Amino acid sequence: MSILRSIVSNKKKEVEAAKKAMPLDKILAALVSAPPTRNFKAALRRKDGMALIAEVKRASPSKGLIAKTWNPVKLAETYAEFGASCVSVVTDEKFFKGDLKSIAEIKKTCPLPILRKDFIIDPYQMYESRLAKADAVLILAALFPETRLLKKMIQLAQNLSMTPVVEVHSTAEFKQVMRCEVEVVGINNRDLATFKVNLDTTLKLLKRAPEGRLYVTESGYEGKAEALKAYEAGCKAILVGEALIKAKKTSDLVTEFVSVGKLF
Fold first, then answer.
1. pTM: predicted TM-score of the whole model, two decimal places
2. DSSP-derived secondary structure letter, 75
3. Which of 91, 155, 157, 173 could form a disulfide with 141 if both were Cys (CB 3.0 to 4.6 A apart)?
4. For 178-227, how does the pLDDT look when each residue is reduced to its tens digit (9 = 90+)?
5. Which domain holds residue 146?
6. Closest among 85, 176, 178, 169 to 135, alpha carbons compared
7. Residue 84 belongs to a domain with what CATH number?
């Protein structure tokens, strides 16, 4: 996992720098007056059809810059206007050209719950996320091979009134997460070692999926036909970023994904 190893190595340095710039005690003091979070989990539970988590992502290690022009606030507004249920904001700076401050900026005009998508490796980042006005946080199971530590991170997110979305990429990670009390599970079709995508990953893991949890399929979707297969297999939500951002008309593709599984 050379790419992931590089990202985590850099993330450790970023977290230590953030701790010096904004010590945890100052964050805790500021959180006393923090506004309530929006209910991310509830927003995904549609009566019919597949809920769309539309992503704000400027770049990636495998594709480089995705968007030629960049207005994350306007992009999120478009997502909300055309039916997305939630917004995912990639906040890693070095590898994805993200910005944690963009969450608060987006929430000024976008009414949807927002997921902070980053490489969470330290409890400090949970408090940081809450202060940044995130409503949910992504937790990669791959970064917490010890189940007890994964459970602690899940519990911390919940204690801070944020929805933890725990992401898996393999059968081993899926089995581990099933031993945790988490309601939203992300299944990422992207291999963390190579960053290549295989949509069959979701279909394979859903065969082992017990009922009672909300499964989100992630990465590699270009349109309705592919998404429909995941929906029919049991995924009630989908996270899409690159395809929406690169689309000739983002609003049309948002509408297409939102229509997946609708009865009327």
1. 0.95
2. H
3. 173
4. 999 999 999 999 887 777 889 999 999 999 898 889 999 999 899 999 99
5. 2-30+42-258
6. 85
7. 3.20.20.70
